[in-house]
Task: structure prediction
Amino acid sequence: MTTPELGLPMAVPAQGLPAAVRIYEVGARDGLQNEKGTVPTEVKAEFIHRLADAGLTTIEATSFVHPKWVPQLADAEQLFPRVSELPVALPVLVPNERGLDRALALGARQVAVFASATESFAKANLNRTLDESLAMFEPVVNRAKTEGRHVRGYISMSFGDPWEGAVPIPQVVRVCRALLDMGCDELSLGDTIGVATAGHVRALLSALNEAGVPTHTLGVHFHDTYGQALANTLAALQHGITTVDASAGGLGGCPYAKSATGNLATEDLVWMLRGLGIDTGVDLDRLITTSVWMAEQLGRPSPSRTVRALSHKE
Amino acid sequence: MTTPELGLPMAVPAQGLPAAVRIYEVGARDGLQNEKGTVPTEVKAEFIHRLADAGLTTIEATSFVHPKWVPQLADAEQLFPRVSELPVALPVLVPNERGLDRALALGARQVAVFASATESFAKANLNRTLDESLAMFEPVVNRAKTEGRHVRGYISMSFGDPWEGAVPIPQVVRVCRALLDMGCDELSLGDTIGVATAGHVRALLSALNEAGVPTHTLGVHFHDTYGQALANTLAALQHGITTVDASAGGLGGCPYAKSATGNLATEDLVWMLRGLGIDTGVDLDRLITTSVWMAEQLGRPSPSRTVRALSHKE
Result:
């Protein structure tokens, strides 16, 4: 399907970039959660199996959120046991203590909490102040750590917010510090509305380092709403970031709507990293086959440019 | 339309980038040349006027190619006088001496020749060897320079070629040197099939510098076939490049087909540069209005993510 015999993309390493990148695959959770039509549990399970077969080593599997909030992921109890034996990391989202209980009962070894950098989002999403929302996560993180689980903290709206606009860097740093201080092992800086640009990325990462947050604890989660996701990723790699969130086939939000979440497509990321000679362990052909299959399940084409370019029937 | 009151994108300059970038707008020529339905001359003229009103200072207007080859641009003689009084640079493509005659007769002050880095493309496009194709351009460039015209040399297939795959950097350097030696004032490195990645870009630019080609004579022309155009542009800016080719609304080739030329959308570029605090002189709202209008003329939506995000009706 791809054309390695043509030597494309030509692998030309660039100075100052990491030798390997861990792709944190979010398609099965973040990518599917806003799908209108219910995706059958067996399709989700096959999707995750295929992603693992394609070489992805970290695959966020589902969310133990209340089914009322995210009906698409109401099958978490049914899904997780169908994938939990895969030899990959399978983090799951836990919104609160009840969600953590459910995840722990199924033996989840990695969990993630979903915080935000802004008052407006905390208010809109949780009807809490920012500090109240952080206080809500504290017992979740504490308990997960006591139980020996690995904990990721998402910080949504890390660059911009639809109500507040540009988010001051010190505010993001404060939330990151709070999540690390309560015990999170890693953080994911989310550009939920896609308004980050490369200089902003570097500035936030530098400010975090200055506040004592080591680069190796940080991942980046860019959205392609304004076409910036891959350029922002390059800027993050130049800063030393080695964990990049991406969604197979660009799943997650319709790219034609303003409300697009527009997740960075894993294939476009793998193409860039392959060109940079950076190891990901991903088999691009298998991944594209998976995304084409998933697009068929959902009944619409993948927005990933790499998937479109390489899956086109001659 | 955009939301400057929200301060987005937050302008955060990054180290080592230029203070200003000249956008070389190719929508009216490269963007339209492969359109199937004939675009009326008055629409093309209005498009160019609107682009100038939006602040673009270099707008490639048309091509004086034989009408048999590019029927869409057969109206070059009718179009050019309708835009030639605009206070912007209006380069035109001239494929050969006959095309140059036509351009000079209309008073064109800037012309461009379209060379290639590979034997396969020279063979397919001109039925000549690479050296024969360069020999064909020599009298065109010579005469344009004798007449006091500014000459741009395009080098298509500067990174990859659909027949040969990855193109060796020394071969691209040789073609660039030949074009400069025959008198070209500037060059545009074209990633015609979109397979460049950031390290490859830096490596080619460095090799050109080592061969005595100064960075200020170079522009970059990236395609988004694999989603890499903006990341590659960032890499080029980091090398000191200050001329970037882009196409308003991403005009040029269907993004859904493998054969997509998939020009970098000017709006996505302006969004990134605005975020980096780099001056372009472009009014993004006016440009988006123009691309939305042009998309209506062509009867299909713009593939630019920034146009989609900001032109969405609430």
Observations:
- The two ends of chain B are 11 Å apart (CA to CA).
- Chain B touches chain A through 60 residues (CB under 8 Å).
- Residues 20 and 279 of chain B are 5 Å apart (CA to CA).
